[in-house]
Write a structure and sequence with these properties.
The chain is an alpha+beta fold. 33% of the residues lie in helices and 22% in strands.
């Protein structure tokens, strides 16, 4: 079932913006665990009863977090693991954890440190320590002991785990990013849906793609290089590989670059 199958058209206040009662009802049942999202019809979620898809012995398990403290410890540890390295400052990375304010977050981090579930990582020129799951320590030290790996490129989604905490990304990479999809067009600095571009250990650019489903074309509307980025043959070759992967992901057969982006950002190499 989808929200369009329910004739509950009353508009009510909801998380991001007012929405239809049918959507709010299904999302509520999903959040308390009675429903799951079993598939999607284009961008519309299709829901079904959880018990049809998840074994009974799992659904009937007791809640492993018997107290709010245990829940906070579990969820804070989970968020640190999801981002990789995270500091103890208010930010988007901590959103959505029930009844977690600064006091509760501080207490959870102290308990996790005492239990040796997380460790502190200190980064040069950053005032606050970062935290990492203890189980990642060996991998972390192994990476630090090796020669730098060959630089690779990546296009990141606006809600990628790595960039959940925008302030931390600014501190670590000197890269300021805001997802402007909810901003009125006149107030956007860049565009509606803009993807950060990572190369090696630096954010080198961002671009605004548009998908033309009718023609199977991926359109680059705009591309902005970060200041002082020196484009090299190796970088362009690697980002071209990323673009091919992105086209495969979006199931597009051709690439078009708007004239303005082609001229101002010198993107001829993407079409070669």
């Amino acid at each position: 079932i989808t929200s369009s199958d329910l004739k509950l058209d009353q508009i009510i206040d909801w998380a991001w913006a007012p929405t239809r009662l049918s959507r709010a009802a299904l999302e509520s049942m999903y959040l308390w665990g009675e429903l799951i999202i079993c598939s999607k019809a284009n961008s519309r979620k299709q829901y079904d009863f959880a018990h049809k898809h998840i074994p009974e012995h799992i659904l009937d398990c007791e809640d492993p977090n018997r107290t709010l403290q245990e829940y906070h410890d579990w969820h804070v540890l989970r968020r640190i693991g999801a981002v990789g390295l995270l500091w103890n400052k208010s930010g988007d990375a901590w959103l959505g954890i029930k009844e977690l304010k600064s006091k509760e977050r501080n207490e959870a981090i102290e308990r996790l440190l005492e239990k040796n579930r997380i460790i502190e990582i200190h980064v040069e020129n950053i005032k606050y320590p970062l935290y990492m799951k203890k189980e990642y320590e060996d991998l972390f030290n192994d990476v630090l002991s090796q020669e730098p790996a060959k630089a690779r490129g990546a296009f990141l989604a606006p809600l990628d785990n790595m960039i959940w905490d925008r302030k931390l990304i600014k501190e670590l990479f000197d890269f300021e990013y805001r997802w402007e999809v909810y901003k009125p067009a006149a107030q956007r600095q860049y565009g509606y849906y803009v993807l950060p571009v990572l190369y090696g250990s630096r954010f080198v650019a961002r671009f605004e793609p548009i998908l033309d489903k009718q023609t199977g074309t991926l359109i680059i509307k705009n591309w902005w290089w970060e200041p002082d980025v020196k484009r090299t043959i190796k970088m362009c070759k690697e980002l071209k590989r990323c673009m091919k992967g992105f086209m495969n992901f979006t199931e597009t057969q051709s690439l078009k670059i708007e004239d303005n982006a082609l001229a101002t950002s010198k993107l001829d190499w993407l079409l070669e």
